[in-house]
Amino acid sequence: MKYEISGRVQEDGGRGIAGVTVSAFDKDLLFDDLLGEVLTDTDGAFHIEYNETRLKDLFAAAPDIYLKVRTASGQTLYQTDDALRFGSSPHERFTIEISSEALRAAGLEPPAPRGEITTEQLTTLTCLENVGEEDDLVKQIRNDMVGKASVLEMMRDYMRDLEHSLNNDALPFRKMAKLFELGQTFESLNGHYYGVAPGLRTGDLHGVAAEYGNLMGVIWGSAVVGVCPWSGKSYTEMTPEDRAQIVGSSVPEEIKVYRGINHFNRIEHAPVNIALTSLLTFMWHLKHAPQVDQLKYGYELNGGHFAAHRAPSVYHGTPREVFRLNYRHHELGNNPPLNYLVDEMVRIADGLYLGQVLFTTDHLFERYDPQADPARYHYQHFGYFLLFEESWNVEARRLFPFLEVPDAAVTTNIVGDGASALASNANASQQSKFTTLTLADPPDGDVNPQLLDEVRSDIQSSGDIMRTLKAYSDTLFKEHRTESHTFDKLHALFNAGIGPQTMHGFYRGALVSWESQKLLAAFGQNTINIVWPVSRDFSPWTGKSFRQIDEAELLKWTDGGEAMGSDPAFHCSNTVAFRTVKEKFTRGAMKVAGVVTEPASPEEHRLYGFDAHTFFFIGRPNRPSMLPENKGKKIYQFNYRWKPLQNIPPDCFCIDEITQIADGLYLGLLIYATDWLKPWNPATDIAAYKYRLFGYFLLMDEQWHALR
């Protein structure tokens, strides 16, 4: 059974007394049992929890409680042992008043009022403030922040994304690398900082090993990160004697040097944490933290000493200045592997710091020379960590409960301001974009009002359109059926959409579902969906690109078979990225098959991350749908069939269609001719080619992509 003791320590005028120790005892005949002790917070409040294991008197039905209040130096200010709470209940509350004279005699100053941290500060990545939109990762990071309460919340999401990832260069790692690249160099840190490690890497792996070899990251993410013993670091400026002994002349005199130490928290009822804490205590000779620090910050053990100062990075991948945390100096007395470790930090937000973990992999058995070329030691990158100032503790306690941040360490309240209100309005506007369908009025095509109402209801239940479409996709891949009520809803949504008049630039792509036809749909089974999970990792497709062309270029790509007329024309392509081993295998297969590709421009690669254009098509608005079931719906058409486009089967038999279903979001149909023997001729009746629907896909702008 859990017991709670809470209350407030205040002076006789009613003002709370911060930072004093409140100890709760169970009064027994021989020895009193300590039930728990905490520091009061900035308002003088305290909260103690305990269970029956604290009660050592086997014959006591309930504890007989008294409290003792002491200063940080151990001086007793107040004691209630002459007013016991006999047979106390599971929830007891105390209000303790201490005279102003007693406080002055103990040297206690009036507490400072609780500080404030604004929502603007929590949500502003200062490292991105003067950075443009020309970098794809920067764009994605900014979109990741949409709807987040803080930068820490975004980092918590990155931590979750990495939990079971074997990819040593997974997207969250690339985003943190970009933040580190753009972070600000600083000169000093002082005092205590809580910390978390979003993800670890297994050094600098390459090729197949990089894609599937991050065993350290998987173990960390799946077993350790939520019960991690490490909880932060503290810094104090080195004395001249300490500095001379540890770093000597290896750091210029004008640069301040700080001595740092790591903190470790033992989490009860967390076996992995207890085991790791015991192992680290043995390996690194961790020592018990001072009692006052244990009460204020919640950690029990200290260890892992380092010298911290501004310096050039020792890592070949980050040619910049950083705040270096060097564990390698012999005089620090660290044991392996700490004596091979160098951490490096930059500031990414006001009071928030991102660090990278570097271990030497060469000359391991030599005594460390701080003035040697860092290349000699071949440092490799093993992951990232965050440190944050005291003002962030209120948000960290919400997001990272395993830190067990005590009340006494929370010294700020979160407040809003005009800037954050503007941000909130922007977020609200964006949320409206994600929940609002933009449909044809009046409707054309085959629109079933009842099915459309079901779609709207699904959007309301899911929270936004993207989550609704993701739910539809999950359902269809789970059902494996060619006939489904979910397909009916997608059909209604496509027909209710607006046929766009123009498409410009690059749009991200995503598959919703395949819809098998003819032999591929034997016994009503959606066989393409069945095999797709095995083959999807080989697909390098990232989206489509659109470029408006004049009549001369249109005639070139269509062999003179399509006139411009009153509608614009576009030369378009599918975009592909060859990042993984499987995608690179597909690139090789495409070369063997004679697929025409054009390399992406450096700007396209930097902005959107794709490597090449391929499978080209002509885009035209105001075309009637080729599928009879769409009843003449006006759509935007993608025609892959023109011979000068040089597409290979099956894409040379393809004509896709899209409609706009929301601002920046398009639902598309994958349509293929099933009569491959009949030569393509635009004058031939469409019905002769026996076009069939083979699936649904999405095109989207960057905001939708971030949500996806």
Question: How would you describe this structure to a colleague?
Answer:
This protein folds into 3 domains: 2-105, Sandwich (Immunoglobulin-like); 118-415, no CATH class; 436-707, no CATH class. The longest helix is centred in the middle third of the chain and has 18 residues, at 418-435. The chain contains 20 helices and 27 strands. Residues 418-426 have low confidence and may be disordered. A hairpin with a 2-residue loop joins β25 and β26 (665-673). By secondary structure, the chain is α+β, with helices and mostly antiparallel strands. Strands 9-10-11-13-14-15-16-17 form an 8-stranded antiparallel beta barrel, surrounded by 4 helices. An 8-stranded antiparallel barrel has the order 19-20-21-23-24-25-26-27, surrounded by 4 helices.
Question: In a nutshell, what does this entry contain?
Answer:
The protein is α+β, with helices and mostly antiparallel strands and 708 residues long.
